[in-house]
Design a protein that fits this description.
heterodimer, A: 5-stranded mixed sheet, B: 6-stranded mixed sheet, 4-stranded mixed sheet
Chain lengths: 341, 427
């Protein structure tokens, strides 16, 4: 099989952090860890090219994965291998973005990273196999990856046995028995001492450490953000009442209040009567302006950010969170009040 | 053997279900049941639902296999009525709020009375009467008497909702009253839950969380909202007589309509089991703040312990935050040594690759999946639509072919365990 290998600037040997901003490039040969991978794969499969890209560029540019894939297209591969990224966050995010995009286009793709790598969740339905924590574990990591590549090339499923750590795609099917009857069977199994049996494996969520307190609020810019679905009356931009796929921004510039009738909540997850009667209870502009006048806060960010937190997929929420953080960080906002419902 | 133990083994009075299978339905001059054929007077039906808050009421039948779709589905009720001298059904609504679940109850099986139409903040639910999606909803295989309505211009939406609920329940009782003199197709004896173990089979509780988030997102017990209440042990037969009535219109795929409470799937599955015994039903509110969720969960677990239940099956209603109510109870039960199983829908994104739960348990591990909420499915074009001419979810003609998430299909991911939908890892 014709294989393209994706790695970062560091493993390509073109530089460290100072080169993290460089865009993708292609070389028609195995590079860095790809040489060992080629040896392990033997004659059956050929690494026809290596694409490398700076970590910042690859993880921080929305179109990076598409750019990388269009470079890859030139050599028409049958399979894409990314990494190993070990615990390196940006590299892992990039590897996942590349294999997820390839998988969506119908190109077989696989990555290798450590299970703590934050990029793991972005791999979509493409397989990721486990690597060691760092390049010191390169040998075992590459052996596992090469074995998985061979299986994938042979059209086989990559599962736990191959060291898969990314989630398998969940698909709806009809069971023989109703859920209630299955629950009774499960309760009986549990009473019989079986603590393993389940139809659902819970996800491991990140523990988010709160940021330290703002030292001097009188010098800080404060932002108001909400997942309570507060939008101008009539919902002109079509924010969803549940399962949100987007977030919106509305200007607070020159505004001292959010009057009843001019704003409303479209959130389908709670009784919006109180929020509609007084939209400030969702976005507390009234109190924020008072604090601004008193000098208790340095200033107020000129727009509020909003989405709907009702049945919204965790992956989408995480995505919105990252975009809001980038947005507020760029605007030099030091603190945000997020009203949740 | 102590006296206590003797008294515990006495059988408490149960309920007799007089089941009338309905094979055929029609509208006619008067409401009557002949053989398996149910005729309903449209005039009488409209009169029962009529209310100052409703400017217009329409009723029509739709049956399984028809090229038809019901949109904007609100609540659904199974017609039931009491025989002589045993109180009434739907206590707190159409009969006095007195303990229910005794004597005999007539049940029209294969029929539902369904309200469909616009209410603000009701998330739009869809029922398919034919095609692959019909099997995903309990109403896909029942003859449905659909009640459509126009609100009065001066009525508040709260009054419209109240009028619909009362009208739907009254209509359901009236239909079942047509069966009072008829011979039932089956007589089913439902013993009360035993106060103590009768043999060495484990007694399993059905812990049933009811959504309690205010108007349009509320569930009623004996006519009052469960909000603010603490966990309560009830006999499963109280549910049979409509002690729990839904007024909850969020998350159609994750909804527990009155119809499903009347036919509580976990209670039914435990009754059908040869290896387990239905211990009882513990109903709990789903509070909106974390401290109350924790308190209710701890008290529900303690109540199970006090009752001597050997295991518990925990269910919910609604989306993400209701997961926490299940997860907290599972953990609280496991902590005091009671094995617990939870029913969850997965919210794994349209592709099925996102984390499936927003609030998983930290100790408990036994979970049943009722399917992925976000996965899309295709619905074919239909000849007839009820509940509205448009489907607001897609801003389209309600009869058109559509692609919708399972989340929009009424009870498709039934948190009470009615359905057969589940998830598998793709291979």
């Amino acid at each position: 099989m014709r294989i393209v290998h994706y790695i970062n600037q560091y493993f390509a040997g073109v530089g460290g952090e100072e080169e993290a901003g460089r865009g993708p490039e292609l070389r028609e040969e195995p590079v860095g860890p790809g040489k060992r991978l080629q040896t392990l794969l033997g004659d059956e499969h050929e690494i026809v090219a290596t694409v490398f890209c700076g970590d910042d560029y690859a993880a921080g540019t929305a179109e990076a994965a598409e750019e990388i894939l269009s470079l890859v297209d030139e050599v028409d591969p049958e399979l894409i291998v990314a990494g190993p990224a070990f615990t390196s966050g940006r590299y892992g995010v990039a590897c996942s973005a590349v294999i997820a995009a390839a998988h969506e286009r119908g190109i077989e793709a696989i990555a290798s990273m450590h299970e703590d790598n934050p990029g793991l969740q972005d791999a979509g339905a493409a397989p990721v196999v486990e690597s060691g924590q760092s390049a010191r574990k390169m040998k075992g990591t590459m052996e596992r990856l090469a074995a998985a590549v061979q299986k994938l090339a042979a059209g086989e499923q990559i599962g736990e046995e191959e060291g898969r750590i990314s989630r398998l795609r969940r698909v709806n099917v009809l069971a023989e028995a109703p859920a209630a009857a299955r629950a009774v069977e499960l309760a009986l199994a549990r009473l019989g001492g079986d603590t393993e049996r389940t139809e659902l494996t819970p996800p491991d969520f990140d523990q988010v450490m709160p940021a330290g307190p703002v030292e001097d609020l009188s010098d800080a810019t404060l932002a108001l953000v909400t997942e309570g679905g507060l939008v101008p009356a009539g919902n002109p931009d079509g924010l969803e009442s549940s399962r949100a796929t987007l977030w919106l921004r509305y200007s607070l510039d020159g505004r001292d209040s959010l009057p009843e009738g001019e704003f409303e909540s479209v959130d389908g997850g709670f009784s919006t009567v109180a929020a509609d009667e007084d939209p400030h209870r969702m976005v507390p502009l009234d109190v924020a302006r008072e604090l601004e006048q008193e000098g208790a806060i340095g200033g107020l960010h000129p727009e509020y950010l909003v989405t709907t937190g009702n049945g919204t997929a965790v992956a989408a929420s995480k995505h919105f969170g990252v975009e809001w953080a980038v947005e507020l960080h760029k605007a030099e906002v030091q603190a945000a009040i997020l009203s949740a419902t | 053997m102590s006296e206590n133990e003797n008294s515990g083994r006495e059988t408490r009075p149960g309920l007799t279900r007089l089941v009338h299978e309905i094979d055929d339905v029609e509208l006619g001059d008067e409401t009557r049941l002949e053989g398996g054929r149910l005729t309903v007077s449209a005039e009488e039906a409209k009169g029962l639902v009529a209310d100052p808050a409703l400017a217009e009421v329409r009723v029509s039948w739709v049956s399984p296999g028809e090229s038809a779709r019901i949109v904007k589905v609100l609540d659904a009720v199974e017609p039931r009525a009491k025989g002589d001298g045993a109180g009434g059904v739907f206590p707190g609504f159409v009969s006095p709020a007195r303990p229910a679940g005794l004597g005999a109850t007539h049940v029209l099986r294969g029929v539902a009375v369904v309200a469909a139409g616009y209410l603000p903040r009701a998330q739009e639910g869809v029922v398919e009467m034919s095609g692959d999606a019909a099997v995903l909803s309990p109403l896909g295989s029942t003859h449905n008497l659909v009640v459509e309505f126009e609100p009065s211009s001066d009525a508040s939406w709260e009054d419209v909702d109240t009028a619909l609920r009362r009208g739907l329940l009254k209509l359901a009782v009236r239909l079942a009253e047509a069966a009072l003199e008829a011979d039932p197709s089956a007589v089913e004896e439902l013993p009360a839950a035993p106060a103590q173990a009768q043999d060495d089979r484990p007694r399993v509780a059905a812990i049933t969380n009811l959504q309690t988030q205010g108007t349009f997102k509320d569930v009623f017990v004996y006519g009052s909202s469960m909000a603010g209440s603490l966990p309560t042990l009830i006999d499963p037969n109280e549910l049979e007589d409509g002690a729990v009535v839904s007024g909850q219109y969020g998350h159609p795929g994750l909804k527990n309509p009155t119809y499903i409470h009347q036919n509580h799937p976990v209670a039914a599955a435990l009754r059908a089991s040869e290896e387990a015994v239905l211990g009882g039903v513990i109903i709990c509110p789903e509070p909106v703040d974390q401290a109350q969720k924790e308190l209710v969960s701890a008290l529900a677990a303690r109540l199970c312990k006090t009752c001597g239940f050997d295991a518990a099956i925990v269910t919910k209603e609604g989306g993400g935050n209701a997961d926490a109510d299940v997860a907290l109870k599972l953990d609280a039960l496991e902590e005091i040594g009671i094995p617990a199983v939870g029913l969850f829908a997965e919210m794994a994104g349209a592709e099925g690759t996102a984390p499936p739960l927003v609030a998983p348990p930290s100790k408990a591990t036994a979970m049943v999946s009722t399917g992925n909420y976000d996965e899309e499915l295709e619905l074919g074009e239909v000849e007839r639509a009820l509940g509205g001419e448009r489907i607001d979810l897609r801003d389209a003609d309600a009869r058109e072919a559509l692609e919708l998430p399972h989340a929009a299909i009424y009870c498709a991911l039934s948190p009470l365990g009615w359905g057969r939908l589940t998830c598998e890892d793709a291979t």
